[in-house]
Amino acid sequence: MNVLEQTEDILKQEIIEAVIKANLATKEQLPDIVLEKPKDKSHGDFAANIAMQLARIAKKAPRQIADDIINHLDQTKASIEKVEVAGPGFINFFMKNDFLGDIIPTILKAETEYGRTNAGNGEKVQVEFVSVNPTGDLHLGHARGAAYGDVLCNVLDAAGYQVEREYYINDAGNQIDNLAYSVEARYLQELGQDAEMPEDGYHGQAIIDIAKKIVAEDGDKWVNADKEERIAHFKEYGLQSSLENIKNDLQAFRVEFDNWFSERSLYKDKITEALKTLDKENYIYEKDDATWFKSTEFGDDKDRVLVKKDGNYTYLTPDIAYHKDKLDRGFDQIINVWGADHHGYVPRMRAAIQALGYPSDKFHVKIIQMVNLFEGGEKIRMSKRTGKAVALRDLIEDVGVDAARYFFVTRSNDSQLDFDMDLARSQSNDNPIFYVQYAHARICTMLEQAKNKGIETDSTYDATLLTAEKEVDLLKKLGEFPQVVAEAAEKHLPHKVTQYVFDLATLLHSFYNAVKVLDQDNEELTSARIALMKSVRITLANGLQLIGVTAPEKM
RNA sequence: GUCCCAGUAGCUCAGCUGGAUAGAGCAACAGCCUUCUAAGCUGUGGGUCGCAGGUUCGAAUCCUGCCUGGGACGCCA
């Protein structure tokens, strides 16, 4: 628990005592004490709405209740500087701010660890994300999911969860056959033959490149080969090449997985096992020569086919087995990051989990809304089929990893994202990523300057000298960081960190313009401010690290 | 037709376990570099929080209905 949380906790405890002492409510009647941090500084450090909540219970006017509470409050114990009743009955607390003195030493000591907490209590969480079919390149939309998933994992890890990152490889099923036929067509075309792409073929450049590689390695060896043998080879070759591409792209995007899970591995016995479990519970029936799952019993719109008339599984079937496997691995939470086009799939998956006998509250699906790409003020349509979408690789080359990642985790995942290419690649102040990085670089320059001027940067400091408004603002903001990370993790909202880092940068820039840090006429204050700057730098760097963005020392 | 997401300043979006005067960036306008990086700062203007009801002491936030935009509704994956 950090210093800020401690003061908050003590204050809450004191409020509870005061309410009871004032005979306003019994322990049982007492609602949860909510302390909010007011946006408006004139409303104090914390504001409580307890008086309004108690109005009905105590049968008194809120402002009267507020006065009663204050009169029974041990202000010394709660380190209150001043307390006021305001508006309809808010109690505004102005704290003594003793705790601010502890923030800098805490940060300097923790360094790269600052922001880490044990909020998650070591809970085991698995995040499955990206999981793109190995049939082509990663595109813009996938990139958003990749950035979201990766940052979410970073944040969970920092907040004390045990995180495992997993990629589900769809290496079985129809799409892989289509891949083989697409490669075949491209291969023959490369050799000048008239070959048509299959109807559901993959038209992307990646497939053409794979065909070219085969030609380079094997020449026309496959033209007259046995058809079955040829397809089998193209399937494996295409699959491996695609996977390699995907892995390379993700690595370039700074996304790494702990586990690559193959759909094929389920076919040995996991699928039959899962089906058996469902059957045992009577959630399976036969109709029209197909096998059905009674997902409607768990709120789905209609029942779903598991085994098709032709004897093959639908996509759902191995996926059920996959989720059973995940849950059997003992995770407290499994989080799936899916594209918006898969949201209709959620009810049947949740139904399956319940039917298998698992609690469905362990299962979370984060839907990543679409990305609309804009360039020159015009919307560019994305289409996987025609292969015209912007590839992740090209995006990285164009705007850089830092800008791309930052943009993707600025917005909430369930809001559609307009990605402005011109803005992302602009090396100007319109581009928010530079704003934050610039704050970090500025501090580095100051520390460098300090050395050049012979100012000792490691000397002792007296943090109580930092009483100017901009200094106090910075200190308070710094103190919030661990809570921000913990909240982002708990609510699965990584963009909270992006927002925090931006706000901290704003305060730093504002401070920078108002205050001269290196003041040779006031060594003590200079030492304190240097310590403050180091703390801001560490916090910015840690925040950027969570987002997966670099923190440059010079710009 | 059913389901999911969104609708907040000119634009892009935060805010949503209900709280005080609804925020930020960009754009517009007016200032600030002989001083640690002006990729910065300071200030001004700008809003029926899609619409209508409801719950509440209090609603951008919760509930219902409707409107608009996007997406999904397959024995495809």
TrEMBL record:
<comment type="subunit">
    <text>Monomer.</text>
</comment>
<dbReference type="GO" id="GO:0004814">
    <property type="term" value="F:arginine-tRNA ligase activity"/>
</dbReference>
<protein>
    <recommendedName>
        <fullName>Arginine--tRNA ligase</fullName>
        <ecNumber>6.1.1.19</ecNumber>
    </recommendedName>
</protein>
<dbReference type="InterPro" id="IPR009080">
    <property type="entry name" value="tRNAsynth_Ia_anticodon-bd"/>
</dbReference>
<dbReference type="InterPro" id="IPR008909">
    <property type="entry name" value="DALR_anticod-bd"/>
</dbReference>
<comment type="similarity">
    <text>Belongs to the class-I aminoacyl-tRNA synthetase family.</text>
</comment>
<feature type="short sequence motif" description="'HIGH' region">
    <location>
        <begin position="132"/>
        <end position="142"/>
    </location>
</feature>
<keyword id="KW-0067">ATP-binding</keyword>
<dbReference type="GO" id="GO:0005737">
    <property type="term" value="C:cytoplasm"/>
</dbReference>
<dbReference type="GO" id="GO:0006420">
    <property type="term" value="P:arginyl-tRNA aminoacylation"/>
</dbReference>
<dbReference type="InterPro" id="IPR001278">
    <property type="entry name" value="Arg-tRNA-ligase"/>
</dbReference>
<keyword id="KW-0963">Cytoplasm</keyword>
<dbReference type="InterPro" id="IPR001412">
    <property type="entry name" value="aa-tRNA-synth_I_CS"/>
</dbReference>
<keyword id="KW-0436">Ligase</keyword>
<dbReference type="InterPro" id="IPR005148">
    <property type="entry name" value="Arg-tRNA-synth_N"/>
</dbReference>
<dbReference type="InterPro" id="IPR014729">
    <property type="entry name" value="Rossmann-like_a/b/a_fold"/>
</dbReference>
<dbReference type="InterPro" id="IPR036695">
    <property type="entry name" value="Arg-tRNA-synth_N_sf"/>
</dbReference>
<feature type="domain" description="Arginyl tRNA synthetase N-terminal">
    <location>
        <begin position="9"/>
        <end position="95"/>
    </location>
</feature>
<dbReference type="InterPro" id="IPR035684">
    <property type="entry name" value="ArgRS_core"/>
</dbReference>
<dbReference type="Pfam" id="PF05746">
    <property type="entry name" value="DALR_1"/>
</dbReference>
<dbReference type="GO" id="GO:0005524">
    <property type="term" value="F:ATP binding"/>
</dbReference>
<dbReference type="Pfam" id="PF00750">
    <property type="entry name" value="tRNA-synt_1d"/>
</dbReference>
<dbReference type="Pfam" id="PF03485">
    <property type="entry name" value="Arg_tRNA_synt_N"/>
</dbReference>
<keyword id="KW-0030">Aminoacyl-tRNA synthetase</keyword>
<keyword id="KW-0547">Nucleotide-binding</keyword>
<feature type="domain" description="DALR anticodon binding">
    <location>
        <begin position="436"/>
        <end position="555"/>
    </location>
</feature>
<keyword id="KW-0648">Protein biosynthesis</keyword>
